[in-house]
Amino acid sequence: MALMTRRSVLGAAILTASASVVVGHGRAVAADADIDLTGWTLLNIGDEFTDPVRSSSQWHRGLWYPHSGKGLFRDANVSFSDGQLRLAARAEQIDTFSYTFSAVESVFDVPGLCTYVEVRAKALPSAANVLSAIWMQSSALDGGPSLLAGAEPNPELDIEETFDHTKMNIATHVWPDNTETTHRSFGGYSYPVGVDISRDFHTYGVERRDGRLRFYFDRHLAWETNPGDSSLWRMSRHMVLSLEGHLGTPVASQLPATFDIDYVRTWYAPNPALESGDYLLTSADGRFLVSHDGAPTLQAQPQTWRVVRHDDCTYSLSTPDGAVLGVDTEAGKHEVVVGSGRLTTSDAGGSLNRWHLLAGRSGRTLHSKFTGLPIIVADSRVIEGVDGDPAAVWMLTETGSSPVRSSSAPAPSTPDRSVPTVSNGASSRRDLPWTRLTRSGV
User: Fold this and answer.
1) Which residue among 4, 181, 389, 427 is the one 20 to 30 A from 120 at the CA level?
2) Cα separations (Å) of 277 from 163, 317, 398?
3) pTM for the whole thing?
4) How confident is the model at residue 408 (pLDDT cuts 50, 70, 90)?
5) Where are the alpha helices (DSSP H) in 211-322?
6) How many other C-beta atoms lie within 10 A of the C-beta of residue 99?
7) Is 393 helix (H, G, I), strand (E, B) or coil?
């Protein structure tokens, strides 16, 4: 959804995909699939909207483009009340616009690679002819017009856009250089749900893992696809919730009306936790990860790393003098560095300085939270790999103790997809179970 660019192509992308999936990029999946989140970790990445003060600090009002269609984004149309985020559309004259909309982008970064994010929401009433959108993209959080620096090719996941209120309308894009010329759409899918989704709350989710994207309606698998660009499944992204003008002129008599969001939740796939502490990191050839002249390298003499586990299940690694292992994205380069630490715009978590530590049979692999790409070893250099590179495997030994072994710990596994029991489970409010939510309204 990039300023003028995203809006000029998106409607066509969705409408052409409504009857079938783009050949080579995905397929419709059997109607009895499901996701079971047993064993997954619910992260402190998201919002329950029970604390308006906290919620106000978690969401940036407005997007990197000032209006959508005939509606001007207005910060005053965003509110937090009664345990929900409410995005309003109004028929009111401001400047040359006869309507005002609202939108928010999260300050927090949702990791990719092995996560499931879910939004429970009630779309703005269909009679108003205003599109409700749930999507993932990352801007500089400064009002535009730029997307986030260093986050090329700016992958975008459109989880739901109400081009048709009886379908879950899904699409994927990348926006290299944030221009229409370089924009690429990989198509999508329109999953029929059999009801007007604006009449009740429903859950909309996307699982990004194992090189695949899996989209869910009320935790029922709506579409599974092999993404056209790997960044779509591995890179961290902001959550975006917005009202858009892609349906044409709103119906003034049906306004004001609101798009109501009950929660945004993120889960991390099963991965044995590593306790925070001081560790040595040993490579497969017996050498140690050390910091030398601001860069990570392999040497025969060990160096201690302070490993800290964060509430998003990623880790930070720092030297005894406080230098942080991170990714430098300046000037378009992606280099693994050791330094003072880099923040991702106003993302206080600092995704450039955090790492997935994924457990395998012989150790752990490190993948950047920001890019999802692995750390690899080239001679004595420790660098960020590219898609397809085998990640370097590390044995972590807590200093003064025996190695922290993961030989018996499985790597993240695919969640169970069993046939759900049909019920009206999605209409219950926020007390949904962490495991399977039964299908409804289909």
Assistant:
1) 4
2) 50, 10, 7
3) 0.84
4) very low
5) 231-234
6) 25
7) strand
Q: Are strands 71-73 and 97-101 parallel, antiparallel or unpaired?
A: parallel
C-alpha–C-alpha distance, residues 169 and 192, integer Å: 9
Which CATH architecture is the domain 3-270+414-425 placed in? Sandwich (2.60)
Q: Which residues touch 136 (CB under 8 Å, ≥6 apart)? A: 110, 117, 155, 156, 157, 159, 206, 237, 238, 239, 240
Q: How far apart are the C-alpha atoms of 409 and 426, rounded to whole Å? A: 34
- Residue 34's pLDDT band (boundaries 50, 70, 90)? confident
Domain 3-270+414-425 matches domain 277-404 at the CATH topology level? no
Burial code (b: 16+ CB inside 10 Å, e: under 16) for 25-46 equals: bbeebeeebbbebeebbebebb
The whole-angstrom separation of Cα 230 and Cα 246 is: 28
> Which residues contact residue 98 at a Cβ distance below 8 angstroms, ignoring those fewer than 6 apart?
70, 91, 92, 252
- What are the E-state strand segments in 65-154? 67-68, 71-73, 78-81, 84-94, 97-101, 103-106, 114-122, 131-136
- The amino acid at residue 165 is H
Q: Quick: pLDDT tens for 140-182.
A: 888 878 898 888 999 999 999 999 999 999 999 999 988 888 9
Report d(CA 193, CA 205) in Å as an integer: 14
Q: How far apart are CA 132 and CA 260, in angstroms?
A: 10
For 76, the 3-state DSSP assignment is helix
Residue-wise pLDDT tens digits, 102-123: 999 999 999 999 999 999 999 9
Report the alpha-carbon distance of residue 205 to residue 309 in Å, rounded. 25
Domain extent listing, the chain: 3-270+414-425, 277-404
The pair of structure tokens assigned to 38 is 């047993």
Instruction: Identify how many contiguous H helices and E strands the chain contains and give both numbers.
Output: 3, 31
Answer for the pair 268, 43: CB distance below 8 angstroms, yes or no: yes
For 277-404, CATH gives 2.80.10.50
